[in-house]
Model the fold of this input.
Amino acid sequence: MLDVERYYRALDLEPNASPEEVHQGYLDMTWVWHPDRFVGHPRLQQKAQYKLQELNEAHECLRSQSAANGRKMGRKPKYSASPPPPRRSPSPGLSKSPTQRKPQKNDPRTVNTSRPSICFKTNPIDDWLD
Done:
């Protein structure tokens, strides 16, 4: 139980915070302690890397704990393992893949129209800017 309290303290939250508060606290603290903010200060950058590892561990543990608590209380998980049922198309034939459809004469979907390619003239300065 002491680890969980340490995780809440690392995220600067009160114990038993909601999952939304945990996530927001994680986002706030990662913004504060991101190592890229301390470029040019090697000691602070090293400390920020350690803090970021600690924040990641706390966020992962608290999220898994809240998911386990949700299952114990009988709540449905947010994401299910099975994919959603396929949607039915209102028009027959549109849900079939192009290989399953029978081509029809004068069908605008099967007519191959070629368009002229577009060419832009560039200045040597444009190459320099890239």
User: Anything to note?
Assistant: The two ends are 55 Å apart (CA to CA). The chain has four helices and no strands.
